[in-house]
Specification:
- It is built from 5 helices and no strands.
- By secondary structure, the protein is mostly helical.
- Helix 1 runs antiparallel to helix 5 and helix 3 runs parallel beside helix 5.
Length: 122
């Protein structure tokens, strides 16, 4: 069985998750104000952990993935700091930045996996 065959459903489900995250962003904006800030720390990081585990197993954790991973982690620290410090649920820019970075990571990984480019040795 080809690796692409088993990963395609994963990529589709990840796409659905990002779609729903963005589609329900307005409703989620009020969630931290209601004391649900911890839930934010379980949504996106779960997708991050899955991506890193798959990328490591397939030896696809290149420099771009590492750099994007650090950018994602920084957005999570900023978002957690905003929620813990002020509890301001309206300040979702760090959360949204994390969504965009993680989405970029998944798209980058999916394209590299589904459409591999043969690199010929020089």
């Amino acid at each position: 069985m080809m690796v692409q065959s088993i990963l395609l459903p994963v990529f589709v489900l990840v796409g659905l998750t990002f779609f729903l995250l963005l589609w329900t962003a307005r409703a989620r904006r009020e969630a931290p104000a209601r004391g649900d800030a911890v839930a934010d720390l379980f949504g996106l990081p779960t997708l991050f952990y899955a991506l890193v585990a798959i990328a490591l197993q397939l030896h696809k954790a290149d420099l771009a993935m590492v750099m994007l991973s650090w950018v994602f982690v920084v957005t999570q620290f900023v978002h957690a700091g905003i929620l813990a410090g002020s509890g301001n649920g309206r300040s979702r820019s760090a959360w949204f930045a994390g969504v965009l970075v993680l989405f970029a990571m998944w798209v980058y990984f999916a394209f590299r996996q589904l459409f591999p480019v043969a690199i010929s040795p020089i």
